[in-house]
Each structure stands twice: as C-alpha cells, then as structure tokens.
Task: structure prediction
Amino acid sequence: MRDYLKWHEAYDDPASDLSWRLRQVQAYIRSTLDQIQGKATVLSLCAGDGRDVLQVLAERHDTSRIQTTLIELHPVLAERARKFAASSRLLNVTVRTVDAGNTTAYVGAVPADLVIMIGVLGNISDDDVRRTIRTAPQLCRPGAIMLWSRATSGSDANSSVRGWLAGAGFVELDYREFDQAEGERAALGSARYDGPPQPLIPGRQIFTF
Ligand SMILES: C[S@@+](CC[C@H](N)C(=O)[O-])C[C@H]1O[C@@H](n2cnc3c(N)ncnc32)[C@H](O)[C@@H]1O
Result:
C-alpha cells in the first residue's frame, strides 16, 4: 500500500487539490448534518485521519445526536482520529481499525444517513468500483446522502461511475471537478440513495486497495 502518512501531508498546502476537496467535502457534511432532523448516523470508509468529518463535528453543538463510525486500516491514522475525537470531546465517534473492503467492517454501523466514500474509488479496480457501488445501498438508509470522489483526467467526467451510481438507486445531487487546466484533477460527487432498504450481508469482499 502507498505511504498514507505522507499522502496526508498534501493537506498542509491550502492550494493543493486535496485541500480543495477537503473544503468541498466539509461543506457537504455540514449541510447534510443540518438537514437531518434528530438522530443521525455517519459512516466514513477508508477515513484516513478522519479530518473531514471530525473537524466539522468539532465545530458543532449537536453532536450528541450524531453517531459516527470511521473505518481506517492504518493504525497510526486510526489512532490520530481517535485522539482528535477525544481531545474535541466527541463522545459518539468510533474508529474501527479493520478492512473497509470487507462488509463485516460495517456490522452495527449501518444503515447510515451520511456515507463518506472519499479517496476510495480512485484507488481500486473498475470491477471493485462497480461492486462497491452495487453494495453501497447496504450502507445507506433510504434518503441517505453519499459523498464520493475519484480523480479524473477531465475528459471522462467520471461518467461511468455516475452511471453505475444511478443504476444502484442513487440520484445525483452534485458533481464537481477541481478547476485545473491540465493533468489529473480531483472530482467529487454527492448523491442521495432513493432505493429500498437493503440489509447488510457481512463477509463479502467488495474491494482491495
Ligand atoms: C486516499 S486516502 C483517503 C483518506 C481520507 N478518506 C481522506 O480523504 O482524507 C485512503 C485511505 O484508505 C486507507 N485504506 C487503505 N486500504 C484500506 C482498507 N482496506 N480498509 C480501510 N482503510 C484502508 C488508507 O490507509 C488511507 O488512509
């Protein structure tokens, strides 16, 4: 696997595409949490140090109604997330150091109202992307918002991913790309799951990094 400790250092540069993505993701997270009335369940897959959701939660005064589960395999990053949550007094945050590619990771944490799938789809094969999207309804409560990202060359605008999401029952709410003239650029989307409830089937391998 890549050195994901080093990878996180790109967040130190506010002009990086990663920092651009973080700002967009946090804006989506804020507005989604504002829209949910009452209890909310949040799930982040391959969460890294969890800064996207944890920084947003740390700004809020209603976190007692929000249950958050982060799945992150790297023990140092997972521990950073736990430490940040503890120092910000976020009591309802759980970090599981397990393989997010296996559906057993999600037992007891789904269906979620907000699923954060950021930094996942661009790191796995197309077959795994398709399988992950087909399985995503098992993670989502009907009406849930799912945030996803996948860098693009700019010419494909992630059309296949967006089509697979539509086929799995997701309605696109937003899609945007980092405004950069050349090369690969960050892109992300927001979609609402409008399909029926789907029970989680544990023990299935849906992707491998
Ligand atoms: C591209 S980073 C994205 C991190 C975070 N979502 C973000 O956007 O800042 C991918 C993350 O997935 C983690 N990861 C890789 N394979 C994983 C697996 N099988 N299960 C859980 N986490 C995994 C890596 O350690 C890394 O932190």
Remarks:
- The mean pLDDT is 95.
